[in-house]
């Protein structure tokens, strides 16, 4: 099978791939095979175990309880064997995340890989993939054994146009969908309500339109490192710590900065000098 290290059997690759793809056709395509040999390998594996591993219905594949148990035991070893050969290559570094389109993703990368000297492949993904070097999420997720977790934080400041500062509690809060799935954001929203915020939360995934509406005085946004004059309550800015979880493949050549915890919000405003000169 093209691309599979000699330490991984075709049968193991077929079983793990079909468990992930849940389709004989997609499994065959991924392994550069056709459906019949994939089916035969699965059948031979079941005969070897003496137990049913999968249920196949019209090309759709579901693991049996025994199959799920075997998959969970095999997966860490399968990934480790694959990485023996894959990590020797000079393939581009891959960074995956479901929040790659977030306005603050650049700041996340500056925290996670501040000294990277190569152009990474950055892709949208909702789950960790075996080929990822790094996977980034705003909430903790389950990860394979060959990944290690660390947690970092961003400081996000509530901003509005300076002409709308006095009526900020009445404005709507414009957010991207990535924050709606963040527990820390919802905690921050409760805190805002306690401080008098009466507006609605409006979902708006286009960061440029969010910025235009904020600049026109039509809404509030959470931003990383804003100018001081943009922040709500400039003398006592409203902000919160947004944790994000970094999953690093242990076989990756990427190394993370040493600190891996959420630090307290800085007392000094991040753009104090710029704001004072505005």
From TrEMBL:
Transcription regulation keyword on record: yes
Origin superkingdom: Bacteria
Pfam families listed in its UniProt record: HTH_1
Keywords: DNA-binding, Plasmid, Transcription, Transcription regulation
One GO MF term attached to the UniProt entry: DNA-binding transcription factor activity
Coiled-coil residue windows: none
PROSITE patterns tied to this protein: HTH_LYSR
Residue ranges annotated for the HTH lysR-type domain, each copy included: 7-64
Family per similarity comment: Belongs to the LysR transcriptional regulatory family.
PANTHER family: HTH-TYPE TRANSCRIPTIONAL REGULATOR LRHA-RELATED (PTHR30579:SF7), TRANSCRIPTIONAL REGULATOR (PTHR30579)
Name listed for the protein in its UniProt record: HTH-type transcriptional regulator CatM
Source species: Klebsiella variicola
High-level lineage: Bacteria, Pseudomonadati, Pseudomonadota, Gammaproteobacteria, Enterobacterales
């Amino acid at each position: 099978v093209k691309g599979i290290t000699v330490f991984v059997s075709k049968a193991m690759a077929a079983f793990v791939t079909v468990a992930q793809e849940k389709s004989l056709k997609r499994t065959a395509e991924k392994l550069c095979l056709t459906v019949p040999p994939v089916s035969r390998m699965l059948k031979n594996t079941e005969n070897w175990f003496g137990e049913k591993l999968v249920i196949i219905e019209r090309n759709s594949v579901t693991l049996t309880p025994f199959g799920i148990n075997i998959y969970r035991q095999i997966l860490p070893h399968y990934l480790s064997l694959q990485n023996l050969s894959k990590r020797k290559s000079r393939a581009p570094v891959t960074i995956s995340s479901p929040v790659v389109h977030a306005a603050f993703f650049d700041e996340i990368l500056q925290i996670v890989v501040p000294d990277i000297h190569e152009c990474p492949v950055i892709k949208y993904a909702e789950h960790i993939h075996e080929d990822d070097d790094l996977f980034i999420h705003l909430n903790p997720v389950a990860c394979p054994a060959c990944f290690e977790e660390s947690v970092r934080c961003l400081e996000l400041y509530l901003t509005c146009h300076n002409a709308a500062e006095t009526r900020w509690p009445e404005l709507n809060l414009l957010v991207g969908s990535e924050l709606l799935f963040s527990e820390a954001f919802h905690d921050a929203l409760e805190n805002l309500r306690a401080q008098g915020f009466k507006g609605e939360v409006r979902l708006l995934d286009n960061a440029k339109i969010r910025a235009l509406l904020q600049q026109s005085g039509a809404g509030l946004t959470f931003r990383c490192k804003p100018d001081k004059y943009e922040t709500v309550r400039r003398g006592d800015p409203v902000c919160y710590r947004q944790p994000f979880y970094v999953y690093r493949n242990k076989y990756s050549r990427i190394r993370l900065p040493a600190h891996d915890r959420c630090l307290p919000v800085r007392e000094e405003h991040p753009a104090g000098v710029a704001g004072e000169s505005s």
